[in-house]
């Protein structure tokens, strides 16, 4: 898939541009009015906005069996699910990643595949580090299938102050491991559901980088 079709090549995610433009306009306005304190505050706020929406260019040098982290952050949970009452619809392993406001928030595809289905679910906005966020919060579920018929599900989950989930892929797209696919604003959570025979390398509290840290290998 041509990633440039869905994403620009700026070092800042396009969702951040409106906030940056507003910040720059307010800096100019307060400076013109001579309100120094508010000018300084807006400069700091605008720099933080640029920092939050940063989108570093990354390459993923992994083999076809490797599953990479879909988000920057810390591993909150690695859980073996014995029954089929989960998004994968079969016994699975769930890996959860928590993103703070200081992490890069551009999300990336965990494994080379074809997107089968995308389902958006409105919901609540509990803090993303809480277990109930996985069940009740607004989320966007993406189901994919690898070339050797492995099914993988990953979910963008909104957090306490995250009120915008962006997804730049659609059903039918062929995607590469580490490819940008979306973003969640201001603190959030990502969950990946993998087949139960996946060799998991991720561990609790591990810090991961989207598109580069390997969290497991498909069988």
Which fold name fills CATH's third level, the topology of the largest domain? Glucose Permease (Domain IIA)
| Total separate domains | 2
By secondary-structure content and strand pairing, the structural class works out as alpha+beta
> Count the strands?
14
**Quick one: overall form?**
elongated
CATH class of the largest domain, named Mainly Beta
Beta-strand residue fraction = 25-35%
Distance between the termini: 25 Å
**CATH architecture call of the largest domain:** Distorted Sandwich
Residues in helices, as a percent range: 10-25%
User: How do the strands line up in the largest sheet?
Assistant: 9-5-6-7-11-3-2-13
- Say which CATH homologous superfamily of the largest domain is assigned: Glucose Permease (Domain IIA)
Average pLDDT for all residues: 88
* Low-confidence sequence ranges: 1-6
Largest sheet: 8 strands, antiparallel
N-to-C series of helices and strands: HHEEEEEHEEEEEEEEE
Rg over CA atoms, rounded to whole Å, is: 18 Å
Tally of separate helices = 3
How would you characterize the overall build of this protein?
With 219 residues, the chain is α+β, with helices and mostly antiparallel strands. Helices cover 18% and strands 33% of the residues. It has helices at residues 17-33, 36-52, 131-136; strands spanning 66-68, 73-81, 92-99, 106-108, 113-121, 139-145, 151-158, 165-167, 174-175, 180-184, 188-195, 199-200, 207-208, 214-217. Strands 9-5-6-7-11-3-2-13 form an eight-stranded antiparallel beta sheet, with no helix packed on it. Strand 6 and strand 7 (151-158) form a beta hairpin. The chain is elongated and about 65 Å long.
């Amino acid at each position: 898939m041509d990633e440039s079709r869905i994403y620009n090549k700026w070092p800042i995610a396009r969702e951040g541009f409106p906030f940056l433009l507003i910040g720059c306009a307010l800096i100019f306005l307060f400076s013109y009015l001579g309100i120094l304190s508010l000018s300084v505050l807006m400069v700091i706020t605008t720099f933080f906005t640029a920092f939050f929406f940063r989108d570093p260019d990354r390459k993923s040098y992994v083999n076809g069996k490797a599953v990479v982290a879909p988000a920057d952050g810390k591993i909150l949970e690695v859980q073996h699910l014995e029954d089929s009452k989960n998004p994968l619809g079969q016994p699975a392993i769930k890996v959860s990643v928590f993103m703070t406001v200081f992490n890069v928030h551009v999300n990336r595809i965990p494994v080379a595949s074809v997107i089968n289905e995308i389902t958006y679910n409105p919901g609540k906005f509990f803090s993303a580090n809480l277990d109930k966020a996985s069940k009740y919060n607004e989320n966007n579920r993406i189901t994919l299938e690898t070339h050797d018929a492995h099914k993988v599900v990953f979910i963008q989950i909104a957090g306490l102050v995250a009120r915008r989930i962006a997804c730049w892929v659609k059903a039918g797209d062929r995607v590469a491991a580490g490819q940008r696919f979306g973003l969640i604003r201001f603190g959030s959570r990502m969950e990946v559901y993998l087949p139960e025979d996946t060799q998991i390398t991720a561990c609790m509290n591990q810090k991961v980088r989207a598109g580069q840290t390997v969290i497991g290998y498909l069988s």
